[in-house]
């Protein structure tokens, strides 16, 4: 009977007609079954839904992919030109920057293919095919090949993906890989075939004063005036296949690219976004929302705030440090502010009350169906929260301190030292030589071009005591005993000894050890002791959390199945999991509070109004001021002569959607999504149709900056532009 219910959910989630057009990160492969076309056309969609996604022919889907490790990008020319956000390309821009070539400050503009910069490690991924494997998973569970709990695990999902590729006609094709994932908390499963291109080159990026205008202050806020874009290009071998970087590679001739609209937009216009939203949690219970607030957000805010204060001061004092830590700081700051805003919005938007109300209705529904599993599941989830809250809190403090905060002597280097110690004990020459070679790589990895030993020392002096004051004694790694016993509780003295005297501290120490490596030196080394202790505590905390988690995946599966049944025929899209999704809505203003109205667009005038030469977040480049003064906007201006900057839509987005194309009813590009608004930062948990807004940069502002400020008419000429 249980298996029949699992199958029934697929029918329920695929058959109902949506009541709201705005909420939902919809699966492309279910759009037809969920009858989305009618609602989308009512909102203003002019194109055939089969031209958005179809397994049988080239569609809009084929112009959109995963940019880098966690963003979306879209193809905007036949020659593989990628548009994404400036903050998505920030790692690459920073990677190419130096004091001599400060592309972060000055921007970068390639006027020819020859000037485009190879970017090692950067990839672009297309979704080639999507296959429903729910029946396969249910059959494996039925036959005992895997338990229901194991079907969520990485081991089984990898096996499922490997088997899918092995049986596919795409097996052996260059760049092809597969990924299997659960949806609706394990009530549905899909297999994704991914094509990865690994030669991606930097083409254009505005100065950070344009691409990051407003900085931390404006992040997650409206009104916004940030021209948040960067441009890259995919290169392939002469046959168009993915290939590692080679001077012989050529720009990829893509099978689909987006046309760009200069027709403008008005309030109420249709807008849709396709991209890769990273993670939402719309099905959490009230207690799980509290878990997010207390066990994740509060610890994250505390540690990142302390670290960022150090980095901010050091970056302001040195251009070298500013460039080294620019990307790290931006990454840290983004979800520091998000966590602050989320906790505030949860309270302001009464999310806890809404969840509690839903649970009352769900219990009534469960009782009306005489379904004991549904009636018990919320209480079982509450018990899970009671178990995991202290562990989750400790683990968040730990991760933010030792994995995302302090960089020196990371636990990942422990195995290298340990391998050398074992080789020395056995006195095996080849093993010793290999371990020393690995050790040299580890040293170079620590002391890379984006690491400053003295800055990291200052971070450690702030974070180590903060961690000790935030968690119980049993969550302290073993080196804290060393601080108390050998350094009399003096954190600064311990950290100075660690950063001055250990094997990895500097080249002199490292070379002296390499010249005469001994097991005794390894055992006595503070960095080895520190890293071993950090590694041991991480294993201990994660094991505790795994044990406390129990059967939470199965409880969520039951709860989501029940909610889908309760809300039918209203649609419930699955939570985001960094797979390709579509969201549709409209261009729309909003009223955040009494007496305040935000219109749906901003202009370049607002950049000039915000200018503050004494605040690095609000500096305006002289050339942009000159273009503004002369109104030299070309064909990109509004009918009234102003230059559009950013606009708002009701699209349902989250992290991962950064860089996603915002398209009109004809599927033409009108902007690039880059942020959400402050008032709705609880949206990952509970969507508010009145407050939720996507902030996008107007494509006309992007093209204006490329052509008039960057002087890259060559890029404009290769795009398909609709006047």
TrEMBL record:
**Know the name of this protein?**
Dipeptidyl-peptidase
What Enzyme Commission number(s) apply to this enzyme?
A: 3.4.14.-
- The answer to whether UniProt assigns keyword Glycosyltransferase to this entry is no
Which family is this sequence assigned to? Belongs to the peptidase S46 family.
The residues that cross the membrane are none
Q: What is the lineage of its organism?
A: Bacteria, Pseudomonadati, Bacteroidota, Bacteroidia, Bacteroidales
Role, per record? Catalyzes the removal of dipeptides from the N-terminus of oligopeptides.
Entry keyword annotation includes Ion transport: no
Q: Which PANTHER family does the UniProt entry name for this protein?
A: PERIPLASMIC PEPTIDASE SUBFAMILY S1B (PTHR38469:SF1)
Keyword entries, A-Z: Aminopeptidase, Coiled coil, Hydrolase, Protease, Serine protease, Signal
Q: Which residues form the signal peptide?
A: 1-21
Q: What class of enzyme is it?
A: hydrolase
């Amino acid at each position: 009977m249980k298996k029949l219910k699992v199958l029934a959910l697929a029918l329920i989630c695929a058959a109902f007609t949506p009541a709201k057009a705005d909420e939902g990160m919809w699966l492309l492969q279910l759009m037809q079954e969920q009858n989305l076309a009618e609602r989308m056309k009512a909102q203003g969609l002019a194109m055939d839904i089969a031209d958005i996604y179809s397994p049988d022919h080239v569609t809009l889907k084929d112009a959109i992919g995963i940019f880098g490790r966690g963003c979306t990008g879209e193809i905007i020319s036949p020659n593989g030109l990628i548009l994404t956000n400036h903050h998505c390309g920030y790692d690459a821009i920073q990677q190419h920057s130096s004091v001599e070539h400060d592309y972060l400050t000055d921007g970068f503009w390639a006027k020819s293919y020859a000037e485009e910069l190879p970017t090692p490690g950067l990839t672009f991924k297309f979704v080639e095919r999507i296959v429903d494997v729910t029946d396969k998973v249910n059959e494996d569970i039925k036959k005992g090949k895997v338990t229901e709990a194991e079907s969520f695990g990485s081991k089984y999902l990898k096996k499922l993906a490997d088997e899918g590729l092995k049986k596919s006609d795409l097996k052996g094709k260059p760049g092809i890989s597969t990924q299997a994932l659960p949806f609706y908390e394990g009530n549905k499963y899909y297999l994704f075939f991914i094509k990865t291109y690994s030669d991606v080159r930097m083409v254009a990026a505005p100065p950070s004063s344009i691409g990051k205008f407003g900085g931390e202050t404006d992040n997650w806020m409206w009104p916004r005036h940030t021209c948040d874009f960067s441009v890259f290009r995919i290169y392939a071998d002469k046959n168009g296949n993915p290939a590692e970087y080679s001077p012989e590679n050529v720009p990829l001739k893509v099978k689909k690219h987006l046309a760009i609209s200069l027709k403008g937009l008005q309030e109420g216009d249709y807008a849709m976004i396709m991209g890769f939203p990273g993670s939402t949690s719309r099905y959490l219970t009230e207690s799980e929302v509290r878990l997010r607030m207390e066990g994740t957000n509060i610890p994250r805010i505390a540690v990142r705030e302390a670290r960022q204060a150090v980095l901010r001061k050091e970056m302001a004092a040195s251009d070298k440090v500013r460039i080294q830590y620019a990307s790290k700081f931006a990454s840290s700051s983004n979800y520091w502010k998000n966590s602050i805003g989320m906790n505030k919005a949860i309270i302001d938007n009464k999310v806890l009350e809404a969840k509690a109300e839903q649970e009352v209705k769900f219990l009534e529904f469960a009782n009306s169906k005489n379904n004991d599993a549904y009636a018990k599941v919320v209480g079982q989830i509450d018990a899970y929260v009671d178990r995991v809250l202290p562990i989750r809190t400790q683990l968040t403090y730990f991760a933010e301190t030792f994995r995302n905060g302090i960089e020196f002597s990371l636990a990942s280097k422990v195995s290298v030292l340990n391998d050398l110690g074992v080789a020395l004990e056995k006195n095996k020459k080849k093993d010793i030589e290999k371990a020393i070679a690995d050790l040299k790589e580890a040293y170079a990895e620590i002391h890379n071009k984006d690491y400053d030993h003295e800055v990291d020392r200052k971070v450690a002096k702030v974070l180590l005591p903060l961690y000790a004051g935030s968690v119980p004694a049993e969550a302290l790694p073993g080196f804290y005993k060393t601080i108390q016993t050998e350094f009399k509780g003096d954190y600064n003295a311990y950290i100075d000894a660690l950063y001055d005297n250990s094997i990895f501290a500097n080249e002199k120490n490292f070379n002296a050890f390499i010249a005469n490596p001994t097991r005794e030196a390894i055992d006595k080394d503070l960095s080895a002791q520190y890293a071993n202790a950090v590694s041991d505590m991480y294993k201990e905390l994660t094991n505790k959390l795994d044990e406390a988690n129990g059967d939470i995946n199965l409880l969520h599966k039951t709860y989501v199945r029940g909610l889908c049944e309760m809300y039918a025929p209203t649609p419930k899209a699955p939570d985001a999991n960094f797979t390709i999704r579509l969201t549709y809505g409209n261009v729309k203003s909003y009223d955040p509070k009494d007496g305040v109205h935000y219109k749906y667009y901003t202009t370049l005038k607002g950049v000039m109004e915000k200018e503050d030469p004494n605040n690095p977040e609000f500096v305006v480049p002289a050339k942009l001021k000159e273009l503004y003064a002369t109104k030299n906007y070309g064909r990109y201006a509004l009918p009234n002569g102003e230059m559009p900057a950013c606009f708002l839509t009701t699209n349902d987005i989250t992290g991962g959607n950064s860089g996603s194309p915002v398209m009109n009813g004809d599927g033409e590009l009108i902007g690039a999504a880059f942020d959400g608004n402050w008032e709705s930062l609880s949206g990952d948990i509970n969507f508010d149709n009145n407050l939720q807004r996507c902030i996008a940069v107007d494509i006309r502002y992007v093209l204006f900056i490329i052509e008039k400020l960057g002087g890259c008419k060559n890029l404009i000429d290769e795009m398909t532009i609709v006047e």
